[in-house]
Amino acid sequence: MAKVKITLIKSVIDRSERQKKTVQALGLRKINHSVEVEATPAIIGMVRKVNHLVAIESI
Known about the structure:
Largest sheet: 3 strands, antiparallel
Keywords: Ribonucleoprotein, Ribosomal protein
Order of helices and strands: EHEHE
Low-confidence stretches: none
Helix content: 25-40%
Subunit structure: Part of the 50S ribosomal subunit.
Mean pLDDT: 97
Domain Large ribosomal subunit protein uL30-like ferredoxin-like fold: 4-54
Family: Belongs to the universal ribosomal protein uL30 family.
Shape: globular
């Protein structure tokens, strides 16, 4: 599987609880915090749900 780098670029303040938990499940904590994860279908699905809050780049 390919790896992707996910970066939180917007705050989760004033977002739904579901979006906050999705960001937390991706391993993101603060703005500009990045994680490198495998691009599994589950991860891609979570990124699509919060794509307005994160930036994604292939590695």
